[in-house]
């Protein structure tokens, strides 16, 4: 079983493909490396695709508690170091966006380009602060994230795929921090209270994928952050909720491939 021992945690990873640029995928919260199957299957003949389980997910370890606030991007960078990946494209969905943006912000020389899939996490923008403030209000009211992962009609439109996604999520261990706890809300409070950063000089090519029916990272959050990040590209996926790479795979993969091809050096 491929395990990278880094920082304070053991990360499980997989590599598919033997040629082309490196492309590393960081999954969303509650997901695992398998949720990228529709992208890896389509791209592994042209890219060396890396998927991994974030700490507390899938086959990876838990690491120390409390989890360091910068653990996500440092884990991703540590994995790149362990696999001797000098530069790579990075694709993050939801929570994984914090890992991807963190590496791009702190170590831009290691990144060919980033794809922010239904996420703006990691960028300190006005839009992100507004989103965090709303989450501080909504979580204590019993916000059920599980019911907001997909477009309202996805379960009836694609029942088998909906079941598969739910089954894959059940492979993960129990959450280390229950959503009703104060420490869970404090994560959003910290994002709300951080100062806004200036990304007018951001040099890493960036693609932001917006899903028009996303009820978690609302479209205005992704669009507002994309506008604040210099040189970024914004792609809108119609008829999709928070998992555009699963719900609308043909449109999503077309946008992903176009971005990668444009920055393939």
Q: Explain this structure to me?
A:
- The protein is an alpha/beta fold and 265 residues long.
- The protein has one domain: 3-Layer(aba) Sandwich (Rossmann fold), CATH 3.40.50.
- The protein has helices at residues 37-43, 71-82, 96-106, 126-138, 154-157, 159-169, 182-193, 219-228, 244-247, 249-262, and strands at residues 3-6, 9-16, 22-26, 48-52, 88-93, 111-117, 206-211, 233-237.
- It has an eight-stranded mixed β-sheet with strand order 1-2-4-3-5-6-7-8, with helices on both faces.
- A hairpin with a 2-residue loop joins strand 1 and strand 2.
- The model has no long low-confidence stretch (mean pLDDT 93).
